[in-house]
Write a structure and sequence with these properties.
The protein has eleven helices and 15 strands. By secondary structure, it is of the alpha/beta class. Strands 3, 4, 5, 6, 7, 14 and 15 form a seven-stranded mixed sheet that branches. The chain has a six-stranded parallel sheet with strand order 10-9-8-11-12-13, sandwiched between helices. The chain has a two-stranded antiparallel sheet with strand order 1-2. Helix 3 crosses helix 4 (about 150-160) and helix 3 packs across helix 10 (about 280-295). The longest helix is centred in the last third of the chain and has 16 residues, at about 280-295.
C-alpha cells in the first residue's frame, strides 16, 4: 500500500509518497481502507517535530480518517468488513490502510460522505469538551471565538449556538467573517494581522469589549494564541473562562494581573488526553455530536478536497492559516 510519509523533520515539501507493508489486524483491532483524511493544524507541527507527540519515523501525518472496514482482528464483534466508519488516529492517517483499535471507531451515518466523516471528530469533540467541561458554557452566555473560520472555530460557533450562547466570531478578513455568519455567528469582528504594537493591541481589546457589552465574555475560545490573546483576555467578564486551544500565531505571554482583576480562569484544553483518561465521558460527548449532526444543528464544512498525491499541499495551506472550514485529502474513491 502507499503512504505519504515524513522521513525527516521539515515542512510539507519533505513528505514522500512511498510503499508500506499492508497492516494486519491484531486482537481487538480493525484494518480500515482509508477513503478520506482531514488535515488539522497538528499535522503542520508533527512533521516539524514541534508537536507534543513525536511518532518514530517514517510516519504518515493525518489524525482523522473515514473509510471502510477491510478486516477485523480476534475479539472484534461490533464491526465487520464493508462497514463505513470514522475515527481519530493521532497520526498515520495519510495511508491507504491503517490498523486501529475497534474501540476508537464510530459508524459513518448513511447519507454522509467520507469527506464529511473525516471532518467531524477532532474539531467538534475538542470543542464540545472545551465549551462544556472547561468553559461551563450555559444558555445565554456570551462567547467570543478567535480564529473562528477554521475547523475548530466554526465548530465552536455551531456548538455555541446549539447550547444557547450569543456568539461573537473574530477573524482576519471579510470572506472568513461571512463563513462565520453562515455558521450562525451573531456578530463578527475582522482584526488585523499580528504582530501588534501596544496601540494596536489596545485598540483590538477595545473592539472585543465593544462587541461584548458591559458584562464582557463568559467564555473565550482561543485556537490562535499569539498577539491576539492578551486583547481578548482584557475583554473577559467577571469569573469568565479563557480556553487555550492552540497556538498557530505563537505562544502568548499573558499578564496574570488580568486574571486577578477579572477573577477569571485560564483553562487548557487537551482533548486527546481527556479522551484517553475518561473514554466514557468522551463517548457521551461524541454520541451527543452525532445527535446534533443528525438534527442538522452542526455540519462539518468541507471547503476543499485534495487528491492523495497532493496531501502535502493541503498541509501547506493549513500552515498558511488561509483555510476556511475543513481541508480533506481524498485517499481513495
Amino acid at each position: 500500500m502507499r503512504g505519504l510519509l515524513s522521513k525527516a523533520p521539515g515542512g510539507p515539501d519533505t513528505l514522500v509518497m512511498d510503499e508500506l507493508p499492508d497492516p494486519v489486524a491484531g486482537p481487538g483491532q480493525v484494518v480500515v481502507a482509508v477513503k478520506a483524511c482531514s488535515i488539522n493544524y497538528p499535522d503542520v507541527l508533527i512533521i516539524e517535530d514541534k508537536y507534543q507527540m513525536k511518532p518514530p519515523r517514517p510516519f504518515a501525518p493525518g489524525s482523522e480518517i473515514s473509510g471502510v472496514v477491510d478486516s477485523v482482528g480476534e475479539g472484534v464483534t461490533d464491526f465487520a468488513p464493508g462497514d463505513r466508519v470514522l475515527c481519530t488516529t493521532g497520526a498515520g492517517g495519510l495511508v491507504e490502510k491503517i490498523a486501529v483499535p475497534a474501540s476508537s471507531l464510530y459508524p459513518l451515518p448513511e447519507g454522509r460522505s467520507f469527506e464529511e466523516g473525516a471532518s467531524l471528530l477532532l474539531t467538534y469533540a475538542t470543542t464540545i469538551h472545551a465549551l462544556l467541561d472547561r468553559g461551563h458554557l450555559k444558555e445565554g452566555h456570551n462567547l467570543l471565538v478567535l480564529g473562528a473560520a477554521g475547523g475548530v472555530g466554526l465548530a465552536a460557533i455551531e456548538l455555541g449556538k446549539a447550547f444557547g450562547a450569543r456568539v461573537v466570531a473574530a477573524v482576519s478578513n471579510e470572506e472568513k467573517a461571512q463563513a462565520c455568519r453562515d455558521a450562525g455567528a451573531d456578530e463578527t469582528i475582522v482584526y488585523g494581522r499580528a504582530p501588534f504594537d501596544k496601540d494596536q493591541s489596545r485598540a483590538l481589546a477595545e473592539e472585543f469589549k465593544a462587541q461584548a457589552g458591559k458584562a464582557g465574555y463568559d467564555v473565550i475560545y482561543d485556537p490562535v494564541g499569539g498577539d491576539y490573546a492578551e486583547p481578548a483576555l482584557r475583554s473577559i467578564g467577571w469569573e469568565g473562562r479563557y480556553l487555550v486551544v492552540g497556538f498557530p500565531a505563537g505562544i502568548p505571554r499573558l499578564p496574570l494581573n488580568l486574571t486577578l482583576l477579572k477573577s477569571c480562569d485560564v483553562c487548557g484544553v487537551f482533548w486527546g488526553a481527556f479522551a484517553a483518561r475518561d473514554p466514557q465521558a468522551n463517548r457521551a460527548h461524541v454520541d451527543r455530536l452525532f445527535r446534533l449532526w443528525k438534527d442538522g444543528r452542526i455540519a462539518p464544512r468541507v471547503t476543499e478536497v485534495f487528491p492523495f498525491d497532493q496531501g502535502g499541499a493541503a498541509i501547506a495551506k493549513m500552515a498558511s492559516r488561509g483555510a476556511i472550514g475543513k481541508l480533506v485529502v481524498k485517499v481513495a474513491d
